[in-house]
Structures are given as C-alpha cells and as structure tokens.
Specification:
This protein is of the alpha/beta class. The chain has one domain: Spore Coat Polysaccharide Biosynthesis Protein SpsA, Chain A (Alpha-Beta Complex), CATH 3.90.550.10. The strands form 2 sheets. Strands 3-2-1-4-7-5-8 form a 7-stranded mixed sheet, with helices on both faces. A two-stranded parallel ribbon has the order 6-9. It is globular, with a radius of gyration of 17 Å. 45% of the residues are buried.
C-alpha cells in the first residue's frame, strides 16, 4: 500500500495493485513546480521526433531549466534540421532503425544511455510541459512503477484536443477499462514516467510500431501487475506544425489492439 506525496504537501489517495485511485482529490500547487529539482534522483527523458526542428529547441531548453540534462532524442528520419539542432542543444540523438512512434520508443528503451532511476517519455511538439516533470518523478519516488498523465482529471486539461479526438479517447478509455478491469481516465496520452526496473520488464513485452504504443504500455502494465498512478497534466497546443497523428486510422489500430490483447488473455 503506497501513498503519494505531491509538492503541495498533501497526501494523494492510497493506491495498491488492485485498487487504482483517481487523482480527483489531488491538489497540485503548480506555482511550486517551476524550477523544482529532483534531489538525488537521476532522470532520463526520451523524445521521439519527426521534423520537429522548430519545436525541439524549446523543449530541450525547458527541460534543462527543469534540471533535466539527460535527454535522448530518437529521430524518425527527419528531413529538416531536427537532428543537428537537438545535438547543438546538448541532447543525445540516435536515428531510428525503422519508423513510427512505437518503434522509436522501443528502440530507445534498449539504449545504454538510459542509466537513471526514472525514465520519462514525452512528445517533441511542446504540448507536454517539462515544468510538470518533477510531479511525475516524485510519484515514481513513492514506489509507483508507472506514472501516467491524464488530461481528464481535475487540474488537467487540453488546448489541443478536437471534439473528435476527445470523443474517440473517451470511447477507447471506456473499452480498455471494461476489458481489463482498470480505472483509467485518459488512455491516449503519452506523458509517462517509469521506474527503471519496471521499464526493463515492460520493454521486453512491447511490440507496437505506431501511436498505439501508449495503449499497449497500459495493457502490459496491467498484465505484469505493475503499480500505475495517473496524475493531472495539462496539454498545450503544439508550438509549430501539425501532428503526425491520424485520428481515425490510429484510433482504429488502438481498438484492434485492445480487442486482440483481451482475447489473448482469455485464450
């Protein structure tokens, strides 16, 4: 039984392996997030990129302001200056062997650069706030294996979600909760932090190549019995450019994954 203490100084709901609490009673004092460091905890951040030259510099700058300097960029063969720009900003860059967000993350999970206590994954477009990083890290430090951001908890939100995406996410989250007896509020959001040991167990089970990787992480966390905590997160609109997500096509892939994994568990 674990209790998570966030920077506000207030205890969060108790979470056990079989009792996944909502974060509805969390009170996060965001005025205390900026500039808060991680103490003795080392943190690696993984960012998959594809033609994010105009965004990646801002993300690296903000991560370093948040006291995170161990940044791994996995580039999916960008045609702009993403790789060069990220290297100049001090990030380690590896070029993806294949394509797709899932493939990029799986490749990163096996990279020897990841030698920290906590591993965080986030997007390159500026929508996920590095200023929230310490909240994820502190939740892992309390004993959680996986900490996942949610835009649908109190004090969470989104500037970047269309009505279609919001509806699709709600449906997919409901299907996931129904099939796997969980209590998630936001399945399709990729701001996550992992205890190093837990990620080592997860990485050997993952097979997704594209955006369905986020749902697969939630599925395999459930199957492996990992402790998972959702915390509020606010998604901002991407700084420049357009998303590589295809709402209907990627949503259908996630639905198929949920059904396939559910049937596999029962067989």
């Amino acid at each position: 039984m674990l209790s998570c203490l966030l920077p506000s100084g207030r205890d969060c709901p108790v979470v056990t392996k079989n009792n996944k609490a909502h974060a509805g009673s969390y009170r996060i004092d965001r005025s205390r997030v900026k500039g808060e460091n991680f103490g003795n905890t080392r943190v690696n951040v993984i960012i998959p990129t594809l033609n994010e030259e105009r965004n990646i510099g801002d993300m690296i700058y903000r991560l370093k302001r948040a006291d995170c300097n161990d940044i791994l960029i996995v580039d999916g063969h960008s045609k702009d200056g993403t790789v060069e720009f990220a290297r100049k900003r001090g990030a380690k860059v590896i070029v993806q062997n294949g394509r797709g967000k899932g493939g990029a993350l799986r490749q990163a999970f096996e990279d020897s650069f990841l030698n920290s206590d906590v591993i965080v994954i986030m997007d390159a477009d500026g929508s996920m706030a590095p200023e929230e990083l310490s909240l994820f890290t502190k939740a892992v430090e309390t004993g959680m294996d996986v900490v996942k951001g949610s835009r649908f908890l109190p004090r969470g939100g989104s500037e970047d979600m269309t009505p279609l995406r919001r509806c699709g996410n709600r449906i997919l989250t409901w299907v996931f909760n129904f099939l796997f007896l969980t209590n998630y509020t936001d399945l399709c959001y990729g701001y996550m932090a992992f205890k190093k040991e837990a990620l080592g167990r997860l990485s050997t089970c993952l097979t997704s190549e594209n955006f369905e990787i986020e749902a697969e992480i939630c599925i395999k966390s459930k199957i492996l019995g990992l402790s998972v905590l959702e915390i509020p997160s606010f998604e901002r609109a991407r700084i420049y450019g357009t998303s590589n997500l295809h709402t209907l096509g990627d949503g259908f892939k996630i639905l198929l994954l949920l059904l396939k994994e559910s049937l596999a568990r029962k067989s």
